[in-house]
């Protein structure tokens, strides 16, 4: 964010995360640590929004002096429609997870999920993507935001597999001009192998693993689950049992996408590694 806006911050600029459900959200805790570490003064809280009431609540928040919103399930597409302006990544994803009041009073919509995932994969974990065969499972709201940033890393091939074929075809068509990408059902996976498999389905939330062939993982394959929990997720356990050399959950992505939102709002980048470490300890 610009310096002129930084100087315009009041003593207690207000931020919220909107979602439904929202009680589980770690975002207030994460942003509280970011604020303490950077010396920024702000209030960040969570609010459960009734389905159908997003626009009214968001309008009311900004009209009453609120500076920025995070938006989670199921409102990311409504946030996309709410924004006056969009970053290129948010436009292509068709989904917004961060809204930021601009100096001219308009509201900018961004999608920080993709940047958060890439930063965790490439910088924190040191997992290469360039020239790798990458498989993404799922075609929901989270996957929408990560396909273009993944293609920007130069994989040799990006395959996206989902139960609902229509959904995955629509999603992969939207980014087909950005690199080698292909959408398919799970029946399109047998006989193929991948170096990096990213689980972007919500299956882990209910203790399920999508129907994957036993020989899906290439030698030295790495597997990442967007979901995170105190214990390794069922997908991580599946990956280890099928020969993955490294596995990780989405806790790092959660903190990195929050750090990107914080930077957009405050013009300062917090030390995300320290917060990942603190959140991991607090989650155990
Ligand atoms: N770490 C982070 O920062 C972060 C950020 C965002 C999301 N997430 C996580 O990412 C996951 C997806 O979130 P989302 O917002 O994209 O959810 P969503 O929009 O509801 O999409 C859910 C996706 O999972 C698929 N799916 C659900 N159950 C399945 C099963 N049993 N087998 C195979 N596929 C299944 C759905 O397939 P169909 O289309 O066929 O129904 C759909 O593609 C969640 O676990 C969420 O916690 C993490």
Structure description:
By secondary structure, the protein is an alpha/beta fold. It has 2 domains: 3-111, Leucine Dehydrogenase, chain A, domain 1 (Rossmann fold, 3-Layer(aba) Sandwich); 114-252, Rossmann fold. The chain is 39% helix and 21% strand. It is built from 11 helices and 12 strands. The strands form 2 sheets. Strands 2-1-3-5-6-4 form a 6-stranded mixed sheet, with helices on both faces. Strands 9-8-7-10-11-12 form a 6-stranded parallel sheet, with helices on both faces. Helix 7 (141-152) links the parallel strand 7 (133-137) and strand 8. Helix 6 (113-124) crosses helix 7 (141-152) and helix 10 (251-266) crosses helix 11. It binds NADP nicotinamide-adenine-dinucleotide phosphate. Residues 73, 113, 116, 138-143, 162-164, 167, 200-205, 208, 210, 226-228, 250, 253-254, 257 line the site of NADP nicotinamide-adenine-dinucleotide phosphate.
Quickly list its features:
six-stranded parallel β-sheet; Rossmann fold; 284 residues; binds NADP nicotinamide-adenine-dinucleotide phosphate; alpha/beta; 39% helix
Ions, cofactors and other bound molecules:
NADP nicotinamide-adenine-dinucleotide phosphate
Classified in CATH, the superfamily of the largest domain is: NAD(P)-binding Rossmann-like Domain
How widely separated are the two ends?
35 Å
Q: Decide which structural class fits the backbone.
A: alpha/beta
Tell me about the biggest sheet? 6 strands, mixed
In the CATH scheme, what's the topology name of the largest domain? Answer: Rossmann fold
* Major sheet: arrangement of strands: 2-1-3-5-6-4
What shape does the CA trace take? globular
Q: Which value, in Å, is the CA radius of gyration?
A: 19 Å
Mean pLDDT over all positions: 94
- The percent range for helix content is 25-40%
Low-confidence segments: 1-7
What is the CATH architecture descriptor of the largest domain? Answer: 3-Layer(aba) Sandwich
Total DSSP E strands: 12
CATH top level of the largest domain? Alpha Beta
- How many domains? The number is 2
Oligomer: single chain
Number of helices: 11
